[in-house]
């Protein structure tokens, strides 16, 4: 079927979106992006190798408004796509945005989405080089993110883990899942220290891609890397499968954000559900030769990011998760956790 | 909110989609694409300049099933994105696909979408280099298409038209809009010769991007180019605005697909509505120095594509559309034509 005729004001809206991106500080040019949106396609030139990832946030699946505001919808869409580039050790350069806009959405809310995209673009020096608006019954924002490295070999795949490697994770886990519980259960939020509750909420509403940490880990010799979007159990499984190896992890070593265990207790859930299966923390899971761990830890410390060793790579397949009492948890059950 | 845990079988579905793309003939490697989907991002190297466009088809806006089948949904999504590259005179190389999948959609229907994407990829030598699946309340398919040219200057912008240029259009207009009428009104279809009705239907259901024609026009000296997705009136307006010039077009010169005028008559609509404002024909509107028209026409004839001169570029702004009796049609009214 034909797309309905463009509504009066659609082109004005596109122009206003460009203004809002600019106001949010989004860069308009980079070493690679030389013609931004406004033509049939954006034009770029390349500087070595290129990593390209696609991701989307969809109303009712990845967010609802509220608790998200529209700026946070834009932030989350771009952050999630950039997180994939972080996991490649790529330097993010451009993003292309497809926005699906319900008929009832106010133009100002579209502009708030653009402001959120622009804010994250500004934070990471990413050019929003192209975009398209379409009508849609639900709000969605699909982002294609492009990053660069000097050579294809400088990009870190999921497939490079070798037996003997240390397995490490950036930052802290469980915050995004606990933040969702806090957002949905005021009675649980009320039991927490307000600052802790707010940090958990922001972990869900305003995720941060670990781009600088990903670059630093690539520079420190990361052998395999993946971002934690599905939960560390599932994502460790993806890395293990791609590397044809096994990851042995220790549950008690996983770094946990403040308040996550309290939220789990108040919600009557096992803390491991939030920590290891909650997803959307957008931390990086990395494997390193043991003699590279110290250099990697130091490089991340200079960025203010913690790196925690949580296990090792062995020959075999799948993921083993061992709890503090030494009992092995069935990895297949772990994969199914939730 | 957290994305629901991946459903059992999602990874198997992704693997099956890759198999289906392969079965449809979609190439897996190109001179630029060196690592396809399966990691956090695809890896490419570049060969000169790059054009990137984004487009999406959304259930209830760009298609319904039926009359579309799922293979045609995939075909249309990729064709629409590639059409933007055609309008740049780029050689299409890669595409990245974000598929939004309703819970009720059968896995086999997902694979039919992949088969449609793969078929168009095969026809044009495009690598489906990356993709992502997400749950969504409605079916959508957003495509980021990447093309190449030797230099940025070899890519044809909308902005290069100069007073004195000839304005020309590839192929024939009105078929996609008339095809939609035929699909929705069996009583009108019944009045047409069956072959004519079928060609109109296919024009709507299986649009063809003019990639080879776009390359040939770029090679023949195209000064400005745009694809006709919104209707020639609206798209001529975009080209005029980008070029800071005016396009004077003659309605009677527009090339019309067989059956379009009959459909308009049977539907009680002015034929100009289908021809000039229907959209989705995905033909190319191009401006050329007058001394390049013959070479461009010859180059397209070798591809079996007609090129028709329909007007000229003048100083000024906007689009003038003149009918056979010499009466000027108000361009602003023309822009609003539904």
Describe the fold and architecture.
- Two copies of one chain form a homodimer.
- Chain A is α+β, with helices and mostly antiparallel strands.
- In chain A, 37% of the residues lie in helices and 24% in strands.
- In chain A, strands 8-10-7-11-9-12-13 form a seven-stranded mixed beta sheet. A four-stranded mixed beta sheet of chain A has the order 3-6-4-5, with helices on one face.
- In chain A, helix 1 (10-23) packs parallel to helix 3 and helix 4 packs across helix 6 (194-205).
- The radius of gyration of chain A is 21 Å and the shape is globular.
- The two termini of chain A are 41 Å apart.
- The first copy, chain A, has helices spanning 10-23, 70-86, 107-124, 175-184, 186-189, 194-205, 211-219, 232-243, 260-267, 271-276, 293-302, 331-336, and strands at 33-35, 42-45, 49-58, 91-101, 127-135, 140-149, 166-170, 224-227, 246-250, 284-288, 307-314, 318-322, 328-329.
- The interface between A and B is large, with 78 and 78 residues.
- Strand 2 (42-45) of chain A pairs antiparallel with strand 3 of chain B, so a sheet runs across the interface.
End-to-end gap of chain A: 41 Å
Structural class of chain A: alpha+beta
Largest interface: A-B, 78 and 78 residues
- Quote the average pLDDT of chain A: 89
Question: How many beta-strand segments of chain A?
Answer: 13
Estimate the strand proportion of chain A.
15-25%
Q: Shape of chain A, please?
A: globular
Question: Which class of the largest domain in chain A in CATH terms?
Answer: Alpha Beta
- List low-confidence stretches of chain A: 1-8, 330-338
Q: Sheet with the most strands of chain A?
A: 7 strands, mixed
Helix content of chain A: 25-40%
Number of contiguous helices of chain A: 12
Q: What is the CATH architecture descriptor of the largest domain in chain A?
A: Alpha-Beta Complex
């Amino acid at each position: 079927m034909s797309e309905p005729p463009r509504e009066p004001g659609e082109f004005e809206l596109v122009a206003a979106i460009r203004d809002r991106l600019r106001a949010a500080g989004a860069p308009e040019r980079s070493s690679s992006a030389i013609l931004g949106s406004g033509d049939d396609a954006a034009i770029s030139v390349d500087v070595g190798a290129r990593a390209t990832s696609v991701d989307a946030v969809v109303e009712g699946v990845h967010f609802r408004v509220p608790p998200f505001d529209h700026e946070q919808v834009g932030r989350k869409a771009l952050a999630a796509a950039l997180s994939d580039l972080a996991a490649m050790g790529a330097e993010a350069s451009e993003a292309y945005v497809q926005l699906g806009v319900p008929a009832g959405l106010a133009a100002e809310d579209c502009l708030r989405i653009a402001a959120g995209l622009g804010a994250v673009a500004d934070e990471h020096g990413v050019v929003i080089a192209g975009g398209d608006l379409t009508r849609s019954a639900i709000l969605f924002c699909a982002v294609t993110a492009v990053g660069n490295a000097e050579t294809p070999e400088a990009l870190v795949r999921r497939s490079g883990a070798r037996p003997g490697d240390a397995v490490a994770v950036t930052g802290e886990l469980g915050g995004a899942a606990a933040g969702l519980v806090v957002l949905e259960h005021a009675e649980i939020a009320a039991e927490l220290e307000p600052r802790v509750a707010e940090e958990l909420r922001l972990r869900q509403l305003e995720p941060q891609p670990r781009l600088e940490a990903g670059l630093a880990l690539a520079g420190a010799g990361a052998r395999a890397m993946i971002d934690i979007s599905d939960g560390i159990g599932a994502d460790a499984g993806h890395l293990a499968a791609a590397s044809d190896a096994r990851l042995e992890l220790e549950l008690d070593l996983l770094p946990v954000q403040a308040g996550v265990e309290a939220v789990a207790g108040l919600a009557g859930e096992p803390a491991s559900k939030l920590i290891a299966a909650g997803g959307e923390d957008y931390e990086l899971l990395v494997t390193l030769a043991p003699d590279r761990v110290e250099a990697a830890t130091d490089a991340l410390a200079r960025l203010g990011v913690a790196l925690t060793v949580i296990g090792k790579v062995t020959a075999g397949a799948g993921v083993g998760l061992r709890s503090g009492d030494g009992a092995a948890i069935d990895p297949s059950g772990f994969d199914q956790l939730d």
